[in-house]
Amino acid sequence: MKKILISLILFSASFAFITNDTSFVEAEEKYAKWGQLAVSKTKEKYPNAEIKDYKHIGRVQGTNTTVEKFKLWLKENDKELGLLVNIEFDKETERVIEISFKEIEK
């Protein structure tokens, strides 16, 4: 009986881990295409800069639109800078409404 209880606890713990890992992957998939767009548009705006890294920093849900927020780290010549990129899109159609850029201190 004790072995069955321990096995059941271990199974439940591993299932919880798998469930949490799956939700993490699903969340990442939701913003992945917006992250690719943020990187692509940044390359257009800063063609001589190297994108060192980027991070998804959040999502803001409005009534009809959503804004995906990213922070990118760029290096151009000897200068490094942080860049906030916000992508606003229609929730229903996913049509991009606006992409904004803001340079920040790294």
Short structural description:
By secondary structure, the chain is α+β, with helices and mostly antiparallel strands.
Question: What features would you describe in this structure?
Answer:
The model is unreliable at 1-20 (pLDDT under 50). With 106 residues, the chain is α+β, with helices and mostly antiparallel strands. A four-stranded antiparallel β-sheet has the order 1-2-3-4, with helices on one face. The protein is elongated and about 40 Å long. The protein has one domain (2-104): Nuclear Transport Factor 2, Chain: A (Roll), CATH 3.10.450. The protein has one helix at residues 2-45, and strands at 50-61, 65-76, 79-90, 96-104. The chain is 42% helix and 42% strand. The protein is built from one helix and four strands.
Highest CATH level, the class: Alpha Beta
- Domains, number: 1
Coarse shape:
elongated
List the uncertain runs.
1-20
Give the helix tally. Answer: 1
Q: How does the helix and strand content classify structurally? A: alpha+beta
SSE string: HEEEE
Strand content: 35-45%
The helicity comes to: 40-55%
Q: Using the 3D structure, state the CATH architecture.
A: Roll
CATH topology: Nuclear Transport Factor 2, Chain: A
Largest sheet: 4 strands, antiparallel
What's the CATH H-level homologous superfamily?
A: Protein of unknown function DUF3889
Strand order of the largest sheet: 1-2-3-4
Over the alpha carbons, how many angstroms does the gyration radius reach? 20 Å
Question: Distance N terminus to C terminus?
Answer: 58 Å
User: Strand tally, please?
Assistant: 4
Q: How would you state the average pLDDT, rounded? A: 81
